[in-house]
Structures are given as structure tokens and as C-alpha cells.
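Each field is set out as follows.
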Amino acid sequence: MKHEWRKKEKELYLPKQKPMELTVPKQKFYTITGKGNPNGELFGEHIAALYAMSYGIRMMPKNGFTPDGYMEYTVYPLEGIWTLDKEDVQEDGSFSKDDLIYKIMIRQPDFITVDLALMNKEQVSKKKPNQENEHVQFEELEDGHSVQMLHLGSYDDEPASFKQMDQYCKENGLVRRTLAHKEIYLTDARKTETEKMKTVLRYFVK
């Protein structure tokens, strides 16, 4: 039976348009880190490398190798952790997108081992050469106690949603563990009308 994250993991990926608390367990990811404007060419290359790795795992049985514990599944959405160096933020809170520091990632199914992830990275790099492939890492990350909500519309309008999340934290005695936040992209910005774009925004709290 196919594992579809939209159906099986709604709490993690399909929150409502209001803040909610949850605890996110340890998960496995292909990740890549960088700095700069997400509208730039390098960011696009980073995304391409992550998707190539992710589909490499997904298609293994069709390429003649079925890993132990393999099950049919839908590839997970792109996620990103975003932050800034304090000196790059102006007094009014504004900043240049060129200064953004990010770690983008795509979650992988639980059956993946470190050895399998590295083997796949080698195979994909031969089939789909991309100089950014070598920067892809495989790691386990744990968001832990979090506050998240669904943001509908442009990325540039996210501050309005962050304001709601800040208010929720204040009312519920929560503080952010880090100024970094996570975004999970449920829609493809290249193919979706701006007002219909869906992004999960997540704070890491205590």
C-alpha cells in the first residue's frame, strides 16, 4: 500500500491557517546548505540536486534494486530552514535576500540507511551530473516541540503569519529556541498562482 504523506501525516504537513503546537520526531533528510537569494541560479541547482537524489531512492525498484523494507511512497515536499546573521538585519527588521542563510532538504522514508543514501548519491551523480550533488548531505534532524501554521499566498506576505505565531507563543508561554524557522513548500512556486501558494511555517519552541 502506497504511503502518501498528505493522507498519512496530516498533522505534520497540512495544518490550518492558525497556529498549532506539535512535536516533530527525528526524521531522515537529504540536505544542502547555502547562502543567498532563493530566486538565484544556485538555489535552483540546489533544489535540482535534492530532487534528483530523492527520485533516485524512489525509483530504485524500477532500476533493479529493492532495498530492505522498501514501500511505495510519494516523494516528500521540499523544506527549508532559514535564518540571518544578526548584523544583516536592519533596525526596522528589513534585510536583503542576498544575506539569507538556508538549509534546504527533502525528507526520506524510514527504510533508508546511511549506506543506501551514499550509494544512491554516487549513482545519481553519474546519471545526472550537477556540481552541487557533492554538497548534498544525508542526516537525521529533529524539530521537536514546534508551533506551525499554513500560510496562503506570497512568500513576501509571510510576516503577517509570523505575527500570528508570535502572538500564539506569547499567549501560551512559549519561546523560540532559535531565530531560524522552517518552511515546507506544499506547492511549486513555478507552477502555482501566487495567491494559491501553500507554505507551512514552523517555529522551534520550548
